[in-house]
Specification:
mainly beta, Immunoglobulin-like, 6 domains, ten-stranded mixed beta sheet
């Protein structure tokens, strides 16, 4: 390709449709001729006979005998170029901007032409010489960033430079910003790197004549020092009891219960670890466990006017990996209601008196119950996790016909997010149940919550990596007096992994990918689908998105497969590949233990059908979950542009509309289009 350098007075276009021509060394207007002499005998060949061509010609002969000619097209006012280096004459329009191309002069190496621009009165220069580049050493290498350097010689043309880099030699998945070359030195910084990782890189420069790449170099990022959050003390303690300590007038048919600060291991709750005594003997009964609440149910009614003592021993353990125990036994006492006295009849009754007995109430009076607060889990992932909040408070059940909603009774507050507290309504899970539920999700933004105009039973709390890693869940109990109950929620993170299911594949087989990333499990009730998260490629210009589906409703593991094909690349369906090429898969791990986005990659290769893949696995294509009706995904099939050829003058601009359609001309939503600069030079 031949390009030109222009002054700021030039305007117009660089290229025009080439015309065939014929040359003569003799000038017989309007044709250019070429003649050769040997022993005074001249031979001639017609090089260009179209239009009025051949003025201001300049000729050069290469070492192989090939002929190179620059000349002027007077009909169209263009600079022309002809050569027979291929064995036959071929011509090219070098510059068609205005009236240009007079007084040409050509030199060899790569081809170099000087000429005169009549329109603007400028001396012009054109060349096919590619820029020369050298990859330099990296500097300022840290845990997540580095500065890459190199040199560029544009051979007299304006040039731009950039760096390509990746974690495998010869496989470049990242690119730096583009820099206009001023002089010869190039220095560009890159970031979002993984710590303790070796990166391979090379420089690339583009001018009007084309693109050159340098040799490969490498550097290794430093290891990051990650501060682990201080462990949060975990204790097993009794939060509340029913009846409360010191209560009187307790019904003889009551059950005795206690609620702990965390879920209890039910196998540790027995009649030996949860006992009820009347002061002289143990009461016979059975025990049960529901989350953080343990209950003792007497085998028969308790005695009237009797003080009972309940005891919880240190043998009760929490339902965590540590099996946390209480530091000491816990006891409390209550007294049952007195018996209703039986009236004494007169000595000589005239009739048997009829007495109306007042039933003994068994329900706890409203306003005497202290609410309890429990979380479905006390450790949650930073993104995509779900925590169910349970509040048990019988005296907040004020409507006997419908489920109650307690407005803004629940708040999540902490230091690991920045957009304010999350306020939620909690909703009774049935009529007169006294149990209220709300849902908290973790994510990158805070959303939902209750306000004067919005009532929400669920919301997302914004979490960020680093900081204390905790949030406080607060329940405000307003009956009989305003009080608060708090629980601590710990945030954690996981590092994503990406791998192929085989070390190699043949053309015509399916390449399988497994992504393990707990933070991408954004819905714990159904299997999530990832459409534009994992990319597979063989080169910078040959790539496709893979479709991955979660292996279960709440696994955080995603699998997918794509056909390794000799046909053209098609998103989610196939990747074009040939024997000997490397398959590179990549994904961004936005949330992880490092505290910064990181790239995870996996590498496999394509082998010939005669070779044996290791291991030989043909994965089953991913099947989209069909539990509920899901709109069909529109797979990209064709891309069209509003214009394929732009001719712009100086300071002009234009817009090109890109339309992405799928099978049956369905509109593709959320498609990502990669734009490649093809070296077009515009004056």
């Amino acid at each position: 390709m031949i390009a030109c350098i222009c002054t700021n007075r030039m305007a117009g276009r660089l290229c025009r449709t080439c015309r065939y021509l014929s040359l003569f060394f003799f000038l017989i207007m309007p044709s250019l001729f070429l003649a050769d002499t040997a022993d005074a005998a001249w031979g001639t060949a017609t090089v260009d006979s179209t239009d009025d061509k051949g003025l201001y010609s300049s000729i050069a002969v290469g070492t192989s005998g090939a002929v190179y000619i620059s000349y002027y097209n007077r009909t169209n006012f263009d600079l022309m170029y002809a050569t027979n280096v291929s064995g036959s004459w071929g011509t090219t329009t070098v510059d068609s901007t205005g009236n240009t191309g007079q007084h040409t002069s050509i030199a060899l190496g790569s081809e170099y032409i000087s000429y005169y621009d009549v329109t603007n009165g400028n001396l012009m220069y054109a060349t096919t010489a590619l820029p020369t580049v050298t990859t330099g050493a990296a500097s300022n290498v840290g845990a997540n960033s580095a500065t890459l350097a190199g040199t560029v010689n544009g051979k007299g043309l304006s040039a731009t430079a950039m760096f390509s880099y990746g974690v495998a030699s010869g496989v470049y998945t990242g690119t730096s910003t583009t820099q206009n070359v001023s002089g010869t030195a190039v220095s560009i910084g890159i970031s979002s790197l993984s710590s303790g990782t070796t990166y391979y890189y090379r420089i690339a420069a583009n001018s009007g004549a084309g693109t050159s790449t340098g040799s490969e170099a490498s550097f290794t990022t430093t290891s990051a020092t990650v501060s682990e959050p201080a462990p949060i003390p975990v204790t097993l303690a009794v939060s509340s009891t029913n009846p409360s300590n010191g209560a009187t007038g307790v019904a003889v048919t009551t059950t005795v219960s206690a609620t702990f600060s965390m879920f209890v291991n039910g196998s540790t709750v027995t009649t030996d670890t949860f006992m009820l005594s009347d002061g002289s003997s143990l009461v016979s009964g059975s025990v049960s466990t529901n989350g953080a609440t343990v209950t003792f149910t007497p085998s028969s009614s308790l005695a009237n006017s009797t003080t009972y003592t309940a005891t919880l021993t240190t043998g009760i353990k929490a339902a965590n990996f540590a099996g946390t125990q209480m530091t000491s036994n816990y006891t409390w006492s209550f007294t049952t209601i007195a018996a209703t006295p039986t009236p004494t009849p007169t000595d000589t009754p005239t009739a048997t008196p009829v007495f109306t007995l007042t039933p003994t109430p068994t329900a706890t009076p409203v306003g005497t119950v202290t609410g309890t607060l429990d979380l479905s889990k006390y450790v949650a992932y930073l993104n995509g996790d779900t925590i169910v909040v349970t509040v048990v408070d019988a005296d907040r059940d004020t409507n006997a016909s419908t489920a109650d909603i307690l407005t803004t009774a629940l708040k999540a507050a902490g230091t690991t997010y920045s957009s304010g507290d999350l306020l939620l309504d909690i909703k009774e899970d049935g009529v007169n149940s006294g149990t209220f539920l709300a849902t908290i999700k973790t994510g990158t933004t805070t959303s939902g919550g209750a306000s004067a105009s919005t009532r929400a039973n669920s919301g997302t709390i914004k979490t960020v990596q680093g900081g204390s890693g905790t949030a406080t869940v607060i329940y405000t109990d307003t009956v009989p007096n305003t009080s608060t109950i708090t629980k601590t929620l710990l945030f954690s993170s996981s590092d994503a992994t990406l791998k192929f299911d085989a070390e190699s594949y043949t053309v015509g087989s399916y390449a399988g990918i497994t992504l393990a990333d707990a933070e991408e499990n954004t819905d714990n009730t159904q299997e999530d689908t990832l459409l534009n998260h994992v990319v597979i490629e063989t080169s910078f210009i040959n790539w496709a998105w893979m479709k991955l589906a979660e292996t279960g409703a709440d696994t955080g593991t995603f699998r997918g497969s794509i056909l390794v094909s000799s046909d053209a690349t098609l998103d989610n369906e196939r990747i074009h590949a040939s024997d000997g090429e490397t398959l590179m898969a990549g994904a961004m791990d936005e949330t992880n233990t490092s505290g910064a986005p990181r790239q995870v990659t996996a590498v496999s290769r394509v082998i010939s059908a005669g070779s044996t893949p290791a291991p030989a696995i043909t994965p089953t294509p991913v099947i989209t979950p069909t539990a509920t009706a899901t709109p069909e995904v529109c797979i990209t099939e064709k891309i069209t542009l509003s214009s394929y050829n732009l001719k712009l003058r100086k300071n002009q601009h234009a817009e090109v509309t890109v339309t992405v359609m799928g099978k049956g001309d369905c509109p593709v939503e959320g498609a990502k289009v990669r734009v490649l600069y093809l070296g077009i030079v515009m004056k």
